[in-house]
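Issue 218. Parser rejects a valid record. Input:
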Amino acid sequence: MAKIVFIGAGSTVFAKNLMGDILSFPELAGSTITLMDLCEERLRTSKIVAHK
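Output the parser choked on:
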């Protein structure tokens, strides 16, 4: 299974769109996605969106 890291994931709209694209590929089902950003507040927002 793939391990995918988003550096700069505090850009919530970009991260949401990219996660949607990644999850549309059956080959990537079960992958681990890690979100990283310097701004903890924006990262929290992206995490909430990712869990939806």
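Fixed in the parser; the record now loads. The chain has a mean pLDDT of 91.
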